[in-house]
Design brief:
50% of the residues lie in helices and 19% in strands. It is α+β, with helices and mostly antiparallel strands. The longest helix has 60 residues. Its EC number is 2.7.13.3.
């Protein structure tokens, strides 16, 4: 017969829980379910946050990639109109013409930063190149088999990414056909653009980005092991086409994945030097280029955060259970309270130690975010420079016309001067020489503006800048368009208006504001552009006095529903292909960096964009 427990002895804990109606396994199951639910909910929220961040980074990466491609898009078209280029194609064996075009292509390649520029005849034989004096010169080589030559002959223009068969260096080949007098193709001008620097920037920023062509072959990647590999096995015909064109050199074209990439928002596993890189994949198509941009975001931070939340939830559940057990024990035996309190204090100390570790990890992550912010600032500077080059690209035809007019006048003066010199008319000869001097000074002034505006700015340094001089430089670049569109310009800027700014960046802002005003007045019956400046004293919200420059147009104004969005990136009311919507956004960023602000409102006739910059002492 079993004996009853002695009086005063404490019943076992399991018996106490059973008598109270709570089963130990039920408590354990509830805590486990709560912990699992917290883990799954936090993990999904973290993954969704990663997806949103990936899509935002994908927009920036696409803008940077397009800027790197579009900044040189105009160059082959301009060279195809060059007189010396056409003369060389008309007489390919002329030594003087070959030497002149070689020197011109070499100078343009050095100034623009492209990898190479070369000229082929209608049969694909290279007649002139920027690397004519280098060991791996293109001169004398035939590239008639390359797709960018065939496409340019067939359609007049081509864009093609591949590995160079002469230098074995990859690049983007942009081709433009040079028309012959009889309407046929006289030759092809090709500009090779090096995009390898983008990959280094992606690696330094810690981002995993890939760019694939229409066949699914990766040709740009932050990880070198992913380059020249398709996502899925290629058909035999596609492999034969790539190898025949030598698009990617002697690459094996080994597939990265067995079944192809996952859908956007899904998870992908990519091999990289004996390890596997996992992450959430997002992509965006670039149909005009035939490319696809991929962004792979790591899921490690989201998983670690979910584990921390699950651990905290489990610990909280255990703490609740222990608190309930301690309350029951306190009613039955007061002496157990002290022991339980000590145990809880030890647990709190352990949790405090864990929190200290978590705090240290958080500080490390904050340092990493600061480095990422610095990389984003460098990307912002590159976007601003790309915007300046895009503006030059938009007005390149007008500038070409502005230079060709003085050149035509110069040729006319030269011809007439020779006639007057034979007649002995010294007075007329001197007058013609004076006019030719003025024409050359005009050409030099235009080229100086172009060089100053297109150069890449170095470390930021503000200095006193005359607002009237900056406005006149921007108007000078738009002079041809102003005349062509019959725009009446009024510039009322005091000559003593000095602001603290960077000259090139200030000119970029003024050019963007004026181009925006001209676009707004494109369909207006009366076109008036007014620039007025006034000095304002320091107010409670400003650190000191400032100059306020207003750029007003006679267009239709800004619709009220768009007023709050005009400075947002990629917001534009223009038709597709007429702009990315970055001009006013980049201008606002530049003005904030200069310590000022940019505002917009509607005036009596059209829109008024107001630029406010701090006063600089002379």
């Amino acid at each position: 017969m079993s004996q009853a427990p002695p009086s005063g002895s404490r019943p076992p804990r399991r018996a106490r829980l059973v008598r109270s109606g709570i089963r130990p396994w039920a408590l354990a199951g509830a805590i486990l379910a709560l912990t699992l639910a917290a883990f799954l909910a936090t993990l999904e929220a973290g993954r969704e946050q990663v997806r949103r961040a990936s899509r935002q980074r994908l927009v920036i990466a696409e803008a940077v990639l397009r800027a790197a491609v579009d900044r040189y898009r105009y160059l082959p078209s301009v060279l195809a109109l060059d007189t010396e280029v056409r003369d060389l194609l008309a007489d390919p064996g002329a030594p003087a013409a070959i030497a002149a075009v070689n020197a011109k292509l070499e100078a343009i390649a050095r100034a623009s930063g492209v990898a190479a520029i070369y000229l082929m005849d209608a049969h694909g034989l290279t007649r002139s190149a920027s690397n004519w004096n280098e060991p791996l010169s293109f001169v004398g080589s035939s590239y008639a088999y390359r797709p960018y030559f065939r496409d340019a002959v067939a359609t007049g223009a081509s864009r093609y990414f591949g590995v160079g068969t002469t230098t074995q260096q990859p690049g983007l080949f942009i081709g433009r056909a040079v028309p012959a007098p009889d309407g046929h193709v006289a030759g092809i001008v090709v500009v090779k653009v090096d995009l390898e620097n983008l990959q280094g920037e992606w690696r330094r920023a810690g981002e995993r980005i890939l760019v694939s062509d229409a066949a699914g072959v990766v040709f740009l990647a932050s990880e070198p092991a992913w380059k020249y590999r398709p996502f899925r096995p290629l058909p035999e015909a596609e492999t034969r086409r790539i190898r025949t064109a030598q698009q990617y050199g002697d690459s094996e074209l080994a597939p990265l994945l067995a079944n192809g990439p996952a859908d956007p928002g899904g998870t992908i596993d990519l091999p990289a030097d004996g390890r596997t890189v996992s992450g959430i994949v997002e992509r965006v198509a670039m149909p005009d280029l035939g490319w696809t941009l991929w962004y792979v975001a790591p899921t490690g931070p989201a998983l670690r955060q979910a584990l921390l939340v699950a651990a905290a939830t489990g610990i909280a559940g255990l703490a609740v259970v222990f608190a309930l057990a301690a309350a029951g024990q306190r009613r039955r035996r007061l002496r157990g309270e002290q022991a339980m309190r000590l145990a809880l204090e030890r647990r709190v100390e352990e949790r405090t130690h864990d929190l200290r570790d978590a705090n240290a990890r958080l500080r490390a992550e904050m340092d990493e975010r600061e480095r990422t912010t610095a990389a984003l600032r460098a990307t912002q500077d590159e976007l601003i420079h790309a915007g300046r080059l895009a503006a030059l690209g938009q007005i390149s035809t007008a500038i070409n016309h502005e230079i060709n007019q003085p050149l035509a006048a110069l040729r006319t003066y030269l011809a007439s001067t020779a006639v007057f010199l034979e007649r002995g008319d010294a007075a007329t000869v001197r007058r013609n020489l004076q006019r030719m001097t003025e024409v050359t000074q005009r050409i030099a002034e235009i080229i100086r503006h172009l060089k100053d505006f297109a150069r890449k700015t170095g470390p930021r340094h503000c200095e006193p800048v005359r607002l009237a001089a900056a406005a006149e430089a921007a108007l000078d670049l738009l002079r041809t368009r102003l005349r062509a569109e019959e725009v009446a310009v009024t510039c009322a800027i005091p000559p003593d208006a000095l602001v603290r700014a960077e000259p090139v960046r200030l000119e970029q802002v003024l050019l963007n504001l004026m181009v925006n005003a001209l676009d707004a007045m494109r369909d207006a019956p009366e076109r008036r552009l007014a620039l007025t400046a006034s000095r304002e004293p320091a107010s409670s919200g400003d650190p000191g006095p400032c100059w306020r420059l207003a750029v007003a147009d006679s267009g239709s104004g800004i619709p009220p529903e768009h007023m709050a969005q005009i400075f947002d990136p990629f917001f534009t009311t223009k038709a597709a292909g007429e702009g990315l919507g970055l001009g006013l956004s980049l201008s606002s960023l530049i003005v904030r960096d200069l310590g000022g602000n940019l505002g917009a409102e509607n005036g009596e006739r059209g829109a008024v964009l107001t630029l406010v910059l701090p006063v600089a002492e002379a």
